[in-house]
Every structure is written in C-alpha cells, then in structure tokens.
Sequence to fold (710 residues):
Amino acid sequence: MANKHSNGGGGISRRSLLRGAGALTAAGWVAGFSGGWILRPSRAFGAAPIKFGVATDITGAIAPSGNSNWQVIQLAAKKINDAGGIGGRPIELYLEDTASDPKVAVGNVLKLIQQHKVDVVVGGITSAMREAIKNPIVRRGKTLYLYPQLYEGQECTEHLYCTGPTPAQQCDELIPYLMNTLGKKRFAMPSANYRWPQLLNKYARALIEKNGGEVVFEEYYPLDQLEYSATVAKIKSEGVDCVFNTVIPPGLQAFTKQLYESGFQKDGGAHTCVYFDENSVNYVPERELEGVFTCLDYFHTVDDPVGAQLQKEYAEMFPGTKYLFTAGSAATGAYRAVKFYEAAVKKTGGDLSREAVSAAIDDVAITDVPGGDSRMVPGTGHCALNMYVAQAKGGSYEILSSANMVAPQECG
Amino acid sequence: MDVAVKLIFDVLAFSSIMVLVVLGLAVIASMMGIFNLGHGEFVLLGAYTVYIFREMGLPEWTGMLAAPFLVAIAGLVIEIAFIRRLYASPVIAMLATFAIGLIIRELIRVLIGGQYYAIDEPVPGSVSLLGVDVSAWRAIIIFLTGALMVACFLFLTRTSFGLQIRGALENPGLARASGVSTTRLYAFTFAFGAALAGLAGALMVPLFSLSADLGVRFLVQAFLSVMLGGVGTFEGPILGSAVIGAMVPGFQWLREIPLFGIMVGDLIQPIVAEVLVFIVALVIVKFRPDGFITKGRI
Fold:
C-alpha cells in the first residue's frame, strides 16, 4: 500500500512538511498514496481493527491545537490497544490534515470516508470547520462524527456528538464570577466574524444583562485583521472593565499584543477568553496571557489523579512536545471522544454500525478522563462536564471555582 | 487629546510599515519598469530570517540586523540568475517574479511546517508619549522608517552613485552612453529593493506572527500604494503608502467618531472598513491615473 518512512527522512517531502508539527515522531507510520497517515497498532491482534478517522488542523493558523488533539488521540488509542483493544479489536488511526482551512478540509475528510471507510471520525476545531465537514461525514458519508471542541451550541445533527463544553457550561460559572466576585460591570466583546463568537456572545450578553451589567460594544472583525488600535482605544476610552475576547488566530496575536500594550490588564481590566489554556503560549507570549480568566473542563492544576497520570504518560509518549494536553485546544474533548466511543462499542458488543454505536453512545458514562467523570445526556448529543473557572498565573492556571457535572443545556 | 495622540500614533505606525514595504517595490518598479510580484516574499524572507536566528538561540535584534543583508544577497542572486535576462520583456519578467515568489513562499511554508509563530519584539511593552501609553516597538518602527527615508533621500540626491541611479532612471540609453553600467546598477537596485523588503519583514513580524502568507497580506496594498503614488518618483510611492497605511487603521477609527449626529460605526462594520480601503484607493486612481505625483522627479 505504501512506502515506510523512517525517522528523519531527507529532502522536501510531506514528511518534512509535517516535521515542524512534530506530530509524527511516533514510529510505525505508513503514508498512504493519497496523503494522510495511518497509525497501526504496535502488536498483532487476531480480530480486524476498528478504523478510527481523525480530521484535524495539523498545519495552518490553529495547528498548535490540532497537533495536541492528534497526539492525545494517539495516546488514547495506544492505551486502549495496550489493554487489548475494544472487545479484542485494536484501534487503527487514520489522519487527514484539515489545514485550518475548510476549503482544503472537505476533500481530505472525504478520503477518510470513501477511501479508508473509517468507522468513526473525530475532529474539527473551529465551528467553521465543523460546519464544513459535518455534511460530508454525517449525511453523505453516513458515518458517526465526534466533535471535540468547546463551541457555540445549537448543533443538534443526528449522529454528531459534541464532547466539548457548550456556552452554558462555560458562561454560567464564569460570568457570575466576573461580575459578582470581581465586580466587573462594563463588557466589551471584540470577536472574529464567524458563527462561534456570534452565538457565544448572544448567550454571554443575556447573562451579563441579567446580572445587571452592560455590553459596551460587540464587534466582528475579519479573521486575519492586523489592526486593532481603534478597538483597543475604545476599550480604554469607554471605561470597559472586562474584555470578553472571541478573536481567534491569526488575528488573535495582533489583538492581544495591542490590548496588552495599551496597559488594560496593568490598570486592572479583566481579559477573558474561554479557549485560553496552558497550550495558548503557542499562540501568544506568556506575558500577554498573565491574569487572563477562562472557564474550561480541565486544567493541569485541577486536583485530579487521573489527569495527572495521563499527563505523565503523555509526556513519556511525546517527550519535550510543545503541544500540550489541554482543554481549550479541544485535546481533552478529543480524549473523551475516544473514550465515549470505546464505551459505546463495548455496549453494542462489537457492532460498529453507525446506528448501533450512535444509540449506545447516547447514554454512556466515562470515568478515567482528565478533569473528572463525564456522561452523555441522553437525546442531546452533548455531555455533562465538571467546569473550572481559572486565571493565568505565571504560565499555569489557578483554579478559582468549580462546579461538578454541569449540564450542557443543548438540544433538550 | 489622549485620543488624538493615540490616533496619530497608530496611523503613523501602520503607515511606517506600509512605507517600508512599498519603498523597495517602488524603487524596482521605477528603475526597471517591473512590478516585482515576488516582493511580498522578500518581506517574508526578512521575517523568516528573524525566526531562523531565534531558532539558533540568538536574540531577535541580531536577526533584524542581518535580515536586510541576507535578503539583499537573495535578491542579487535572483536578479543575476533570472530577472536580468528578462528586462526586454517586462510582462515575462513580472511572471517570473511571481513564480519566484511562489517558490519562496511554498518553500518557507514547508520549512516552518505550515504553522504560525509568534516572535517577540526586542523592546517589549509600552512607553508613555504625551501621557498616553503607546507600543514601544511601534515607536521604534516609526523612528527607523523616518531615519531610513532621510538616508535614502540623501543617498539618492547627495552621492555620485545616487546620481547614476537617477540618471539611469531618467534615460538609461544616455546613462550607458556616458559610461554608467546599467547592468550593475539594476542588479544593485534590485538587491537594494529586496533589502528594504527584508528589513520591513523583520521589523514588522513581532507585531503580527510569522506565517508563509505574511507577505501576500501586504502585496495588494503595496501595489495600490505604488499606483496611488505614481511610478518613477521617490516621494510618490511614499505618499501613496502613507495614505493606504493611514486608511487601514483610519477607517477603524472613523467608526468611533460621530458625524452629523450619527455614529459612523453603526454604518461601517469592521469587515466593511477593510474593503473600503480598496474602494477609496481605486476611486482615487480612477481620477488620477498617473498617481499623486507625476512631476518633480528627484
């Protein structure tokens, strides 16, 4: 089927293209003719493998998140295979790069479905990406799709399961904390111009207004805008005391730099961004992240023996990696996706048909995942999660408050 | 007052970046009659140099210092190997620069693994200017651009080499007849234009982030600047780029100012403001097809 790549292949090849990503350092890689990558289990199994498709952003503006997703999925698959697979069947991973670009992604995702005929697809990080690939996977491809990232909600497509937090899970803890504990009242919502910020802002705005606060402005910028001086000046001149930031890379770097240089945080302003986590230093310098507030389903600082053990194994599998196992990058969601799928296939007794797995996954619980147990809320395609409000302090996140098994409040 | 200082500073800062990018493009266009479609990639090479130096463990400023020289060498090699053979047919030469640009861009995309990298500025944080906090690095860029303008102007008007350049610009045939090697001069000019682009890329990369598409982002605006300013003069493109550079943050600022009792911001969304820059520039070009400055060459 293909040529075997050794470590450190020379010349300009797909291999060296991905070298910067550092994602393929694991041995045992086989390159398909069509591009994409297959990771086979390291030992022989008697039963046929379960084909697990991964479609994530290995290159492009949000590659640091995509690579951490991919590495975490490798860890999850390895752990399952080492323990004997799912009902004796190993997981075989098929990777396609969605390249942070929905136009490129659709073609690559179709390869997973049509050529490799995978049993399930995990992937997509931005909502623009999910929107682009969900139809090829779920409708045309008739394949189960697991989406790992925090997102804007209202995704109720059948056979599509969301394993990341929803606006209710992220905002219901965070915004009352910002307003009632920190006393923030005047909010600004600088945002990237696409679906996630628009719907998240709508939810957050309702909460802010309910708690007696005010949204001074809510603005949407092109994703690659470089100039935010007028926005930052307005934040200062309007007396905004909390910036609810939903700008994403590549515009994010310019925005955070300009906000930081204006002295907003230094003067006591709160900067909030609900996808910021330990992995964010791959996007933004640490000093600009200092003091940022966020709310996610896991942080390295959460008192969680399961998470600590997984972090240790992750570090052993990918020594020195800069792509961290974190929540805001969708990596915890990706890990949960694999575990939910494992639990569902165990329940079906090895039946991999979409309808059977979908019916089973609708009501499963998982335990050994970072951040605490999680379970699917039946009939919603979303899961209940433990949520933690945290603040960046010297590169790690200090947990300020937490809530157990927060309901997703979607599609119910 | 505070707002005015901030507005002027931000407009100046972005204009400075545009001027740096455009100057190299304009020098080559004026001299050889070629629009260098690979100019954005010279900007990218400058930014990439800073990244390489950082990866080698050297501080960012060493990369910024080296960038114009290394990119100049790259420009010189490209001129000698390709461009010089194509001066007789400017359209082919333009296509060649496009191809070279594409090769550089995709090569760098491979080298950086298709990723985006944040690069720190050598002077981080903010400084106080008339009681307003402004970005220290942007202030340095404004200062360096100003100094470079003066240096370029003096070089072109006060040195004998500058005289040769102006002569070759005005009348290449006569310059050759007078014993000026235009071949050598063109090679130098091309390298000089590349050096300016390299410097622009190296200085601005901390403000944004390094990716293979960094140069392309500026190329269209740079072309508009040259068209707006007029080819063949020194001040024209500088003025053109200053105007384009001012419009990018300018329209965002315009949204914050009430006009006839209505907030402009309610009418112009940020996403429209980006497009408006091009519309205004094209309207100006329509009415002044030769650019702002058509006479008074240096």
Observations:
- The longest helix of chain A spans residues 63-82.
